[in-house]
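To: structure subgroup
Subject: Chain for Friday's discussion

All,

I'm putting the inputs and outputs inline so they're searchable in the archive.
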Amino acid sequence: MATNPVEFIQQARAEIGKVVWPTRREVVLTTVMVLALAALAAVFFSLVDLLIRTGLTTILGVFGS
């Protein structure tokens, strides 16, 4: 069932009118949370990498040459 372009635009405008846009405060808070969690993940994976690297270096030092 095809709709004509005018009807499509009217329906699109009606749908856009239903959108609830976030407030500036919500945008700032979610941005800060994303940045904080990204930093936390970076620290976590850096520590895991350091632990694995140290473990492997120790194991290869003992059983290596």
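Points worth raising on Friday:
The two ends are 75 Å apart (CA to CA).
Residues 21-63 form one domain.

D.
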